[in-house]
Amino acid sequence: MKRNVLSWCAALVFGLHLAALPLSSEASDNALEKIGSSGVLKVAVPQDFPPFGSVGPDMKPLGYDIDMAALIAQELGVKLELVPVTSTNRIPYLTTGKVDLVISSLGKNPERQKVIDFTEAYAPFYNGVFGPEGEAVSKPDDLTGKTVAVTRGSIEDLELTKIAPESAVIHRFEDNSSTISAYLSGQVAFVATGNVVAASINEQKPNKMLESKFLIKNSPCYIGINKEQPALMTKLNEIIASAKNSGALESISQKWLHTKLPQDL
Amino acid sequence: MAYQFSFEAIASNWELLARGVALTVVLTAIGSFVGIIIGTVGAVSRAWTLPLLSQVFTVYIECVRNTPFLVQLYFIFFGLPALGVKLNGWEASVLTMVINLGAYSTEIIRAGVMSIPKGLLEAAESLAMNRWQALRYVVLRPALKNVWPALCSQIVIVMLGSSVCSQIAAQELTYAANLIQTQTFRAFEIYLTSTLLYLMLAVLVRKCLNQIGMRFIERRKA
């Protein structure tokens, strides 16, 4: 008899859950409308990953991702609320509804795609070969007989070793700063590194700017949104596309990464 | 223990290691040969306080002996290009080793020169030896003989120290070991092998230097 009561209770609770499910998903169906009606766009942004997101001297977040968030809020005609997140909690923030979007230098992979959806890419993130302006190098074979500095054991080292021609001279250094110094002091003609590293060097206006020559490994950043939000997805992709066309994205890229947007972003 | 030892990584990369060993040996050979020449000149000018030259050597020795090898290497490789002197990893390594050993051997050889009693020089003079002959037979040969073991130790130290040159991408033994390690992740096997190679090299270099010492300095049949 006692067991019967218990199982009834369990069934009741379970049933309530089932009844509640369609309700809650109905509510989140209109994420775009919800943003419009509340008048606030909540965006998860990084605060520890310059130049995508860091904290300025006035304690306000700033960076590529923050400018992107501002651009989207402006296009949607709503107020922007920035929510600083870390790289580990940015997806939980989205799935639990604490934010509407994640603009946090988020890369796409199959595991993440099971949990959230991704818009079109909005920012470049890649490892590539960089060199001074005017050097005509656009593919691995062009490195024939040239010297390239790379940090030993890094992704770019492993990939470059595979694709570089036999006669390219790869100098391997112990850390990023030695690799960059070797380039800046003219010991090598080119350097293979990440575009974020290159950006932070260009930030300091060196005597030889690092210009992107070709990509070694590309994993651009996407905006993350909750699953099954076709209206929001379409709207965001429209905004990204028009920002690419109007040059708004180009100027964000120039401002934070000091390089042109790659053609194929 | 779950670790599976595998020396396959070494076997398939032996060429890289061999080239590394060769480069380490060449580096050491040039470094010690030129270094000892500098050291001899410096020792005589310091011991006899030759004007100007002895001051120059004093500054040089103080600068080199009181700064780390790695920093000297970085300065020559990364720093000098700003002044228009661009040396590649290999040239910078050779130059740093020469400069470094030159300073240390100056002080070692100077100790030898100082150990020659003044009376011997006067004796040479009374035998109508000219200054050059006296320097060569009465001063330098016995001086070098006295300090040869110390000089050998310094050369071995500099050879082992050349592993630091891997930091500026000079492709010597440590660079080769590091490179193989990054590609195969066989840290134990590779560093064990390179340790043994250095040990072997050090023993061999010492043996060679002893032979050289006996043949050319003591003039004994080896």
Automatic annotation (TrEMBL), chain A:
Protein localization: Cell envelope
Primary subcellular site in the record, as a coarse category: other
Pfam families in the record: SBP_bac_3
Keywords associated with the record: Signal
Residue ranges of domain Solute-binding protein family 3/N-terminal in the record: 40-260
Signal peptide: 1-27
InterPro entries membership: SBP_3_CS, Solute-binding_3/MltF_N
GO cellular component, one term: cell envelope
CDD domains assigned: PBP2_SMa0082_like
Record carries keyword Signal: yes
Record has Ribosomal protein as a keyword: no
Assigned protein family: Belongs to the bacterial solute-binding protein 3 family.
The name this protein goes by in its record: Polar amino acid transport system substrate-binding protein
UniProtKB/TrEMBL annotation, chain B:
GO cellular component, one term: ATP-binding cassette (ABC) transporter complex
Top-level taxon of the source organism: Bacteria
Keywords of the record: Cell membrane, Membrane, Transmembrane, Transmembrane helix, Transport
Pfam families: BPD_transp_1 (PF00528)
Repeat recorded as keyword: no
Membrane association type: Multi-pass membrane protein
GO biological process, one term: amino acid transport
CDD domains named in the record: TM_PBP2
A GO term, aspect molecular function: transmembrane transporter activity
Subcellular location: Cell inner membrane; Cell membrane
Coiled coil segments of this chain: none
Residue ranges occupied by any ABC transmembrane type-1 domain in the UniProt entry: 21-209
Residue intervals passing through the bilayer: 21-49, 69-87, 147-170, 190-209
Keyword Translocase among UniProt keywords: no
Protein family per UniProt: Belongs to the binding-protein-dependent transport system permease family. HisMQ subfamily.
Designated name of the protein: Amino acid ABC transporter membrane protein 1, PAAT family (TC 3.A.1.3.-)
Origin organism lineage: Bacteria, Pseudomonadati, Thermodesulfobacteriota, Desulfobulbia, Desulfobulbales
